[in-house]
Design a protein that fits this description.
The structure holds 3 protein chains of 3 kinds. By secondary structure, chain A is of the alpha+beta class. Helices cover about 30% and strands about 35% of the residues of chain A. Chain A folds into 2 domains: about 50 residues, Roll (SH3 type barrels), CATH 2.30.30.140; about 30 residues. Chain B has 2 domains: about 140 residues, 2-Layer Sandwich (60s Ribosomal Protein L30, Chain: A), CATH 3.30.1330; about 160 residues, Alpha-Beta Complex (Phosphoribosyl-aminoimidazole Synthetase, Chain A, domain 2). Chain B contains 9 helices and 13 strands. Chain B is globular, with a radius of gyration of 21 Å. The termini of chain B are far apart. Classes of the chains: A alpha+beta, B alpha+beta, C alpha/beta.
Chain lengths: ~80, ~325, ~375
């Protein structure tokens, strides 16, 4: 129930949108996310957008991972390990 | 010649002769074919004969990057090339469904002719049958291929040895995904093209620098995973491959994410796996990359004595898992 | 934001993974058991080797989160019976096509002449109906809260258009009742729940508040990339160590507290709650979705005169322990059929057929070379 992938909205025509990921495109339905706009990233599940992705939240999560990676390197340096 | 294929086109009478003259012979211009004898009699061959047969039933008939005709020639040529044979002659038997648009048949035959020229192979014998509507899925092609194996070349799926290096001639999954995105009503637009291509030229270039290649296999149905498992089984060796070394085009990767597929199980029609002695690997890689059909070649793994018959994948994530034989047809999923 | 930010690769960095694994292990004083209720998580955990990486401090258990796996034999038999009717075509997602009922699968039925089409979207099934006015298209409605709204949307479109030759066989089920069944059952100890990220995109993370409030169990709503899962596991480990059961939204880029209100409203309009029989769990009241009376014309159950005996009484392949696997009672290798009589190539039960079934995931990713 879980296969949903983030795709970018290239254009909108009524309740349909053309979305793209890595050059693969398809027409999908925005019936479940009428608030979606061109340029938004949406989660696509069985030909429907089920959620509009929050860029800021994504950024923060990625920043968290980067912090973890940096913390790891710091620790390695402090303990005299090769990076 | 009418618009559609009729039963009469297969029954050896005037209509059949018309089909032969106006369509098949128009594109397939070989002298032997044009002689219209019951069998082609060819020059003597000095050396070991390689002989292969295949049938082609792909749907849809026309897909991005190719068609059933191109596939038929490439597939047969590649089977010969995988034993190190220089392909010489092909046969082509057609089973046509009554009602097939003549334009489609023409397109397929033209494509076969062009591909045969590109692969430098002669189509010297053919046959046509027509079956009633519903008795065949539009168009089936059966081929046989004959080639000659140069002296000193001994390539077999049984020849992999511990220590050997494993190379792939390029990116995987393109053909399988090119077909998949057109089927099951999936209707994705994508830049994915079938990689369908004749590999004999690439193989000859490889054998010229390394006649001691142990194994060559084209990674068709079941993809890279199937081929590696087959070799591991037939050679009774273990295989380890590194996920990060396997090239997958971005669009293929994206389509796989969307459909829940693994590109390692998707078919290829223009890629080979080569298993070679370790000291030959880097030279071969250079030679492959210098050839248009091997530009993205990489060394993906190695053969070992441990875990014979099993293929282990080291993931990009740093873990490892078994890469099994595919269970069945590649199917899209939503879960 | 560049596409890089939403590409899977961004959430697969091995170094960050190692940190999260270490943090999760360090947080717990004693071994904890975390259950996931989503086949997508089962699949990802196995594919990326997370189960072994987190053991023994954190034990990951697979729960009944694979909608294909929990589909009862009788429902599959009904779908096959419908497909075998002369003017009916069953449209289904690819996942269901090889799942066996008591007498084979939809793929077997198709080989015998039944009309079965694989679709990517319920909207494709609508197209089939529009393009083939002489055929009756039955859309097989499989899935939890992620997929149910999409079927509801298709039914609404059909109703708006007056598309008479389209209907739905709803086999949709809801996740919370399954969670309650497991926790109430008391057979398996569950300390924390890895919440299904895409189901929660629809339901909203507030939907899981019953877990800490009624069961004292923390729930971390998780995405499906390995770093998403590890982040959630780490957050659960910390919550457990601090004895602070709560709902944690660890998938904030896709999930909000309220979820997708449009989708939820559509589901409320098109479906009503009903009792549903779950493979392995039996009948769970108010755990399934039936077509609402206003949409009775689009309910395949109303359209056919097919009567099938209730399942549960049906013959189960001897030794098949899908039910126990689904409840987390045993791990796949403990089933006597695993890897012998039951493999992905010749599956006996749905846990092996479904790509995200616990047994299939374990078979593909969990076996070691020796």
């Amino acid at each position: 129930m879980c296969l949903a992938v983030p795709m970018r909205i290239e254009s909108i025509q009524g309740t349909q949108a053309l979305v793209d990921m890595g050059g693969v495109r398809r027409e999908i339905s925005l019936i479940l996310t009428p608030e979606a706009r061109e340029g938004d990233y949406v989660l696509i599940h069985t030909g429907f957008a089920i959620s509009v992705l929050d860029e800021q939240e994504a950024r923060e999560t990625l920043a968290l991972f980067a912090e973890l990676e940096e913390a790891s390197r710091e620790l390695d340096r402090a303990e005299g390990r090769e990076p | 010649m009418g618009d559609t294929v009729l039963l009469a086109h297969g029954s050896g009478g005037l209509l059949a002769r018309e089909l032969l003259d106006d369509l098949f012979l128009r594109y397939l211009g070989d002298d032997e074919l044009h002689a219209l004898e019951d069998a082609a009699v060819l020059s003597p061959i000095d050396g070991r004969l390689a002989l292969t047969t295949d049938s082609y039933v792909v749907q849809p008939l026309f897909f991005p990057g190719g068609d059933i005709g191109k596939l038929a020639v490439c597939g047969t040529v590649n089977d010969l090339a995988m034993r190190g044979a220089v392909p010489l002659y092909l046969t082509a038997g057609f089973i046509l469904e009554e009602g097939l648009p003549m334009a489609d048949l023409e397109r397929v035959v033209a494509s076969m002719a062009a591909t045969a020229r590109e692969a430098d192979v002669r189509i010297v014998a053919g046959d046509t049958k027509v079956v009633g509507r519903g008795a065949a899925d539009r168009l089936f092609i059966n081929t046989a291929g004959v080639g000659i194996v140069p002296p000193g070349i001994h390539i077999s799926a049984r020849n992999a040895r511990p220590g050997d290096q494993i190379l792939v001639s390029g990116a995987v999954g393109d053909h399988g995904l090119a077909i998949m995105t057109q089927r099951h009503g999936l209707r994705f637009e994508s830049p994915i093209q079938s990689d369908c291509a004749p590999l004999s030229g690439l193989v000859q270039a490889m054998l010229a620098v390394c006649p001691g290649v142990h194994v060559l296999r084209d990674a068709t149905r079941g993809g890279l995973a199937a081929v590696l498992n087959e070799i591991a089984g037939q050679s009774r060796v273990g295989i380890t491959v590194h996920e990060e070394a396997i090239v997958v085009h971005e669009a293929v990767s994206a389509a796989c994410e969307l459909l829940g597929l693994d590109p390692l199980y998707a078919a290829n029609e223009g890629k080979l796996v080569a298993i070679v002695p370790p000291d030959a690997a880097s030279t071969l890689l250079e030679v492959m990359r210098a050839h248009p059909l091997g530009a993205e070649a990489t060394i993906i793994g190695e053969v070992q004595a441990a875990h014979p018959g099993a293929v282990v994948l080291r993931t990009a994530f740093g873990t490892q898992r078994l890469l099994d034989m595919p269970a069945g047809e590649l199917l899209p999923r939503i879960c | 934001m560049s596409q890089q930010g939403f590409r899977p690769q961004a959430f697969r960095d091995p170094a960050a993974a190692q940190r999260l694994i270490a943090a999760a292990k360090a947080a717990v004083a004693e071994p904890v058991a975390i259950m996931e209720f989503c086949g997508g998580h089962t699949h990802a955990i196995m594919r990326f080797g997370l189960r072994d990486a987190l053991a023994p401090e954190v034990r990951l258990l697979s729960g009944p989160g694979c909608p294909v796996c929990v589909t009862d034999d009788a429902d599959i038999d009904l779908a096959i019976a419908l497909a075998s009717l002369p003017d009916v075509t069953v449209a289904t997602f690819g996942d269901m096509i090889r799942v066996p009922g008591t007498g084979g699968s939809l793929a077997d039925a198709r080989a015998r002449g039944a009309s079965v089409e694989i679709v990517y979207s319920a909207l494709d099934a609508l197209d089939l109906a529009r393009n083939q006015p002489g055929a009756n298209i039955v859309m097989l409605g499989i899935g939890f809260e992620t997929t149910a709204p999409t079927i509801a949307a298709a039914v609404r479109v059909a109703a708006d258009e007056g598309l008479a030759n389209f209907c739905v066989l709803s086999l949709h089920k809801l996740t919370p009742p399954a969670m309650r069944a497991i926790l109430d059952g008391g057979v398996v100890r569950v300390d924390g729940v890895l919440g299904p990220g895409h189901v929660t995109a629809i339901t909203g993370s507030d939907a899981w508040s019953f877990l800490p409030e009624r069961y004292g169990v923390p729930c971390a709503v998780s995405g499906f990339e390995p770093l998403d899962i590890l982040l959630s596991v780490r957050d659960l480990a910390v919550a457990l160590a601090e004895e602070r059961p709560a709902v944690i939204n660890a998938y904030r880029r896709s999930v909000t507290g309220q979820g997708n209100l449009v989708a939820r409203q559509l589901m409320d309009e098109v479906f009503v709650l009903g009792d549903a029989r779950w493979r392995g769990l039996g009948v769970i009241p108010a755990s399934g979705l039936d077509l609402a009376p206003a949409y009775a014309a689009y309910d395949a159950r109303n359209r056919s005169a097919i009567e099938l005996p209730p399942a549960g009484a049906g013959p189960h392949a001897r030794g098949c322990r899908c039910g126990d696997v689904l409840r987390g009672v045993i791990a796949p290798p403990e089933c006597p059929l695993f890897g012998r009589a039951c493999t992905p190539a010749k599956p006996v039960g749905p846990c092996m057929v479904s790509a995200e079934g616990a047994c299939a995931a374990y078979y593909r990713y969990g076996r070691s070379p020796s």
